[in-house]
Amino acid sequence: MPTPHLPDLDALRLLVGIARHGSIGGTARANGMSQQAASERVRAMETQTGLTLLRRGARGSQLTEAGVVVAEWAARLLDLADEVDTAIEGLRGDRSRELVVWASMTIAESLIPRWLVQLRQRQQSEGYRATAVSLHASNSRDVVEAVRAGTAHVGFVEGVEAPAAVRSVTVAEDELVLVAAAGAPLSRRRTPLLPEEVAALALTSREEGSGTREVLEIALAKHGLVVGDPEVELTTATAVREAVLAGSAPAFLSRRVVARDVDSGSLSVVAVLDLDLRRYFRAVWVGTKNPPTGAVRDLVAIARTTER
């Protein structure tokens, strides 16, 4: 039965970090949280333990004598916890060798291949047998459902808001642009399209449930508008891109996806006004706030580092 005075491991990691960094602000940044959130976490630990762990002053904060002692004890406990975690991973053996990844179409087509190569290279350089990866590409809504159902170990989705009922972390930022084939009437337009003009367009569009379509729907909804009926509806970013290149109606696509076509002059970016078309690529999983140890955590770390 856990003692009521012992903080959880994440809280103890924060305390040990303060002892090592000598600063609550530096520790907060290292843990990807605000200084205020870190301070509140320390206050919660002080309430739980009945000890003053941090001395706060105009020139900053430092651990009290009691805080230093608790941090030393916590460091030993955390080392043991990491050893147990590693041992459990070893006991799982070949049952956990296959990594099932689901990703939205845009991420699967343009980003995931590089991440998986880097995962294999990292494992081989560290002397581990490369994890067998099964990749399934779908729209963002289906990816989240696969993760929630346990069909996928980790998913990568695109969109404006973080999906509910799963854990997530942003790995990259992106932006949609409206593109038309070179020479199309819209490509020669000199003034930006207004939101109501965008809503009136018959587009080459992704299907409902895709992160790309969701971004446009949210952007137009802020102006009380809805997306018009598409001229054609396709299920992958590549199919949409190829259709526009062939002369189909314009489309909203990731700036990353169309960069080469725009540079070559095959596609033209059509300016739009007052529409926030930014979105985020996120890793999603279930369980604790950190990705599961092993290949999942390694892959998420690679995604965050590569796209930073």
Describe what this molecule looks like in 3D.
The chain is of the alpha/beta class. It has three domains: 9-92, Orthogonal Bundle (Arc Repressor Mutant, subunit A); 95-167 and 283-306, D-Maltodextrin-Binding Protein, domain 2 (3-Layer(aba) Sandwich); 173-280, D-Maltodextrin-Binding Protein, domain 2 (3-Layer(aba) Sandwich), CATH 3.40.190. The protein is built from twelve helices and eleven strands. The protein has helices at 9-21, 24-30, 35-49, 65-92, 105-110, 112-125, 140-149, 195-200, 211-221, 237-245, 255-264, 295-306, and strands at 54-57, 60-63, 98-104, 132-138, 154-159, 167-181, 204-206, 232-234, 251-254, 267-270, 278-285. The strands form three sheets. Strands 3, 4, 5, 6, 9, 10 and 11 form a seven-stranded mixed β-sheet that branches. Strands 1-2 form a two-stranded antiparallel ribbon. A hairpin with a 2-residue loop joins strand 1 and strand 2 (60-63). Helix 1 packs across helix 4 (65-92) and helix 2 packs across helix 3 (35-49).
Give the CATH topology of the largest domain: D-Maltodextrin-Binding Protein, domain 2
- Principal-axis shape: elongated
Determine the structural class based on helices, strands and strand pairing.
Answer: alpha/beta
Per DSSP E runs of 2 or more residues, the count of β-strands stands at 11
Report strand %.
Answer: 15-25%
First-to-last CA distance: 42 Å
Which runs of at least 5 residues are low in confidence (pLDDT < 50)? none
List keywords for this structure.
308 residues; alpha/beta; D-Maltodextrin-Binding Protein, domain 2; seven-stranded mixed beta sheet; 12 helices
